[in-house]
Amino acid sequence: MELERELTNKTFHPGRSICFVVTEPKPREIFAADFRDRVVHHLLVGRLEPVWEKIFIHHSYACRRQKGAHAAIRYLKKFIRQASRDYSRPAYYLQLDIAGFFMSLNKKILFALIAKRVKSPDLLWLAEQIIFHDPTKNFHHKGDPGLYKLIPAHKTLFKVPADQGLPIGNLTSQFFANIYLNELDQFAKHRLKIKYFSRYVDDVLILHDNPEQLKIWRGQMDEFLKEKLQLSFHPLKTVLRPVDQGINFVGFIVFPRHTLIRNRTVRKLKNKLWLFNQRLRSRDLIHPIRLWSPELCGEFLKILATINSYYGQFIHADTFRLRRHLYEKHFVILKIYLLPADKDCSYFIWSND
């Protein structure tokens, strides 16, 4: 009720954030809004989303309903088949990454893009409160303070200008990223007429049968980014290769006729399985036990959920042998407690024995 009054009276201001560092897949600084502010973030995105969903291109996949990584992979397979004329001729892909995207995003440009399409004074006021809020002025640390040394200067909000950068970790930041880069999407699709264009956050992917055309488009898009959005492509993260070599995109390696999972993802699961088995050994649970404590049941449910989340990702690639291999060679003690739900090892269920 108090939050509703603050929004109605326009006295709302974002509260204190939690700042911490994650190290996987690489060190990143996270500013997580408190629960009260997250309610407001969902309110704002819920009002803005219908406006932009009519505008966004079909092949923008991040933070959108009925999109996501799995949809991106399905369409990428289709793009490869079409660009190569059913695999009958060579095709190439160009993969581009925007340098320091979230830290480089200009808040004034972002707000102007929103104001161009939103006429409600209330929504504009709320968008302004969230966009121009500086979380570095009101936060508390969580986790190991030494991890902040791993963050480069251009990757932290503590070192960017006041009118630049969005905090990683908030729903609004993800949605604002789509609004900001929709300008690039529209330029690529409608000005450059790029047929096979996909984007997931700041990861851009283009296919064509002529690598020289891909180079031309890269130059044109980079010029557009610098002029209109004050961004640029990362010079060391440009990949131009034949599609036959596999496309590393949104957690998968996509080849013309098959799809694999990143080795990094498989290694992470193997490490987790090893740790799970070590914990079971430390509890002397090599054989089924008769007495279960609530704590132990909760631990097993978390293990089951973790494993099934990985296998849920695996089934979107050609991984039958991988799934069987992991179960047979790396589950070890876990085999006593977890059983494959089907012959394909699609997921696991609790053993009743």
Brief overview:
This protein is an alpha+beta fold and 353 residues long. It contains 12 helices and 12 strands.
Q: Provide the succession of SSEs.
A: HEEHHEHHHEHEEHEEEEHHHHEE
- In helices, the fraction of residues equals 40-55%
- Number-wise, the strands total 12
Q: Please state the CA-atom Rg, rounded to the nearest Å.
A: 23 Å
Specify the biggest β-sheet.
Answer: 4 strands, antiparallel
| Low-confidence parts | none
Order of strands across the widest beta sheet? 5-6-3-7
How much of the sequence lies in strands comes to 5-15%
Q: What would the keywords be for this entry?
A:
three-stranded mixed β-sheet, 353 residues, alpha+beta, globular, 12 helices
Describe the 3D structure.
The structure is a single chain. Helix content is 47%, strand content 14%. By secondary structure, it is of the alpha+beta class. The chain has a 4-stranded antiparallel β-sheet, with helices on both faces. The longest helix has 21 residues, at 171-191. The termini are far apart. The model has no long low-confidence stretch (mean pLDDT 93).
How are the elements arranged and paired?
Blueprint: H1 2-9, E1 17-22, E2 28-32, H2 35-53, H3 68-83, E3 92-97, H4 101-104, H5 107-117, H6 121-131, E4 139-141, H7 171-191, E5 196-200, E6 203-208, H8 211-229, E7 239-242, E8 247-249, E9 252-254, E10 259-261, H9 263-282, H10 294-314, H11 320-330, H12 334-337, E11 338-340, E12 348-350
Parallel strand pairs: 1-4
Antiparallel strand pairs: 1-2, 3-6, 3-7, 5-6, 8-9, 9-10, 11-12
Helix pairs in contact: 2-6, 2-7, 5-6, 7-8
